[in-house]
Design goal:
The chain is mainly alpha-helical and 501 residues long. The protein has 22 helices and eight strands. The protein has three domains: 2-105, Arc Repressor Mutant, subunit A (Orthogonal Bundle); 118-269, Tetratricopeptide repeat domain (Serine Threonine Protein Phosphatase 5, Tetratricopeptide repeat); 286-293 and 320-500, Serine Threonine Protein Phosphatase 5, Tetratricopeptide repeat (Alpha Horseshoe), CATH 1.25.40. Helices cover 61% and strands 6% of the residues. The strands form two sheets. Strands 4-3-2-1-8 form a five-stranded antiparallel beta sheet.
């Protein structure tokens, strides 16, 4: 895979890593895709249509999405549109990479593995040790226990060392590295190199066994995590075509898709494997975006009942977040007592599972909103500060603390909290978490009572991400309650619901 060197930068397309003088430069996956495409053909004018096809194949986005992406890439490179060193704009036509580029072609990692034996299927190996290692690795991942991921990686590596042509080893390793990436996703700067490594490993598995449905499904999951929903849905559909009766492939399609396609795919997933509570969480997201809180509540209660059935304590694929989302829905509907109970239940979830901390922190924030509404600012402040101690890299609790200070007429404390929120928003944006940064920028404007600016930001977010779940949380996000009744905000919610249909 090629490495491109230009100026002080080095772009490793295999490792999905950009460095400047050997120091990693945070960049989103789509920024790296754009940079690789431009640097591959320096001096050539690459049209906007070509870039849309390359970067958003099969996905409808607005013209502004590319303009925004180029702007973000320029910020990453320290470039300027007025005096460019790297990316030149050709008005109304496209872009040109103008810096000298040195290309170094490295051998693809898959070339080191022997070709699969003729007629051999991906799920077959003559070695019991290989099968044992892969099976152990899968079971470790299915526990969703962060402490077991490294052991799973070692099992998959052992399987590959014993049988380098066994595709399941590479696919398992891809899943394990993706779990590691997910562990970083809640931070300001997710580890994009881990996500790129996982995608590369899944592709290695596919190269060895093009008919291996699990490899297609795994790639779908990883591409969805890389914000490439069109490619992700295509890969998941291919997995289903190869193995239509396996529930996991339908889940991967539901995860990548949105709206009715997500609901249909997850309904089929649950028909085939009813004991999978996380499917209910993802279905409820669609109903929240559609502003159908009653349906979302019923779906979540089904998932919770499944999660808490007798004997489920050691179940495969434990789910987090169900109580948090239900609590958020109840709070939005004015049931403060019910919301508080659900947030407390979320906080008592098994803290070893992969997503437990993320939702436990969200539940602490939820408790802060409940207490703020109840006129208990001291306890609300304690909840927001506990959230920050559990995970400092957030925006919401800073905005909560600003509201607490404002209610006490403590102007300096309120401004300090807002300053911390603004800094955190910039950290999100710098780390490539642009959707969350845009949402929180709108929330910060709402707290500052700049409601028109807040709606401007939300409208821009929906324009830039015309497909997918971006903004699904708006109907139940406490920070946006001051916008309720605004004609423009109502229009934002209507468009959000249409997208979820």
């Amino acid at each position: 895979m090629p490495v491109y060197r230009f100026g002080a930068f080095r772009l490793d397309t295999d490792g999905y890593r950009l460095t400047r003088e050997e120091v990693a430069v945070p960049a989103s996956a789509r920024q790296l895709d754009l940079l690789a495409y431009l640097a591959a053909e320096p001096s050539r004018l690459i049209t906007r249509d070509e870039l849309f096809e390359r970067l958003w194949s099969g996905v409808t986005v607005t013209d502004n999405a590319l303009t925004q992406l180029v702007s973000e890439l320029r910020q990453t490179l320290g470039d300027s549109s007025g005096d460019p060193q790297y990316v030149q704009t050709v008005a109304r036509r496209g872009y040109r990479f103008i810096a000298p580029v040195e290309r170094v072609d490295l051998p693809a990692a898959v070339s080191a593995a022997p070709a699969p034996t003729a007629g051999r299927r991906s799920g077959e190996t003559s070695s019991l040790d290989v099968m044992r290692a892969v099976t152990d690795g899968r079971l470790q991942l299915e526990a969703l226990d962060a402490s077991q991921v490294e052991a799973a990686i070692q099992n998959f590596k052992q399987a590959i060392a014993l049988d380098p042509a066994f595709a399941a080893g590479y696919v398992g390793l891809a899943n394990a590295h993706f779990w590691q990436y997910e562990g970083s996703r809640f931070s300001f700067q997710p580890d994009a190199a881990l996500l790129a490594l996982a995608i590369s490993e899944a592709r290695q598995g596919l190269a060895l066994a093009p008919d291996y449905a699990e490899a297609h499904a795994t790639l779908a999951y990883l591409l969805a995590g890389s914000e490439r929903p069109g490619e992700a849905c295509a890969a998941a559909r291919q997995a289903i075509a190869l193995q239509p009766e396996y529930w996991g492939h339908h889940f991967r399609l539901g995860h990548a898709a949105w709206g009715q396609e997500r609901l249909d795919a997850l309904a089929r997933c649950l028909q085939l494997y009813p004991a999978f509570p996380f499917a209910y969480f993802q279905m409820a997201m669609v109903h929240v975006a559609r502003q159908a809180p009653g349906k979302a509540r019923r779906v979540l209660e089904e998932g919770i009942a499944l999660q808490e059935r007798p004997g489920a304590a050691r179940s495969r694929f434990p789910a987090n977040g169900l109580h948090w989302m239900l609590g958020s829905i109840l709070l939005a509907r004015g049931d403060a007592a019910g919301a508080r109970a659900e947030f407390e239940r979320e906080g008592k979830s098994d803290h070893q599972t992969l997503y437990a901390r993320e939702y436990a922190v969200a539940a602490l924030n939820g408790q802060g909103w409940v207490l703020l509404d109840a006129g208990e600012p001291a306890r609300a402040e304690a909840a927001f500060r506990a959230s920050l101690r559990a995970h400092p890299e957030q925006v919401r609790p800073h905005l909560g603390l600003a509201l607490v200070a404002r209610g006490r007429r403590q102007a300096a404390a309120a401004e300090d909290a807002l300053g911390a929120a603004r800094h955190a928003i910039e950290e999100l944006r710098h780390g490539g978490r642009t959707v969350e940064a845009s949402l929180m920028a709108a929330a910060e404007n709402t707290v500052e009572q700049r409601h028109e600016h807040a709606v401007d930001a939300l409208e821009s977010l929906l324009l830039q991400t015309e497909h997918g779940p971006a903004g699904w949380i708006l109907p139940i996000e406490p920070l946006f309650r001051p916008l309720t009744g605004s004609k423009r905000f109502s229009e934002v919610l209507r468009r959000l619901a249409e997208r979820a249909a």
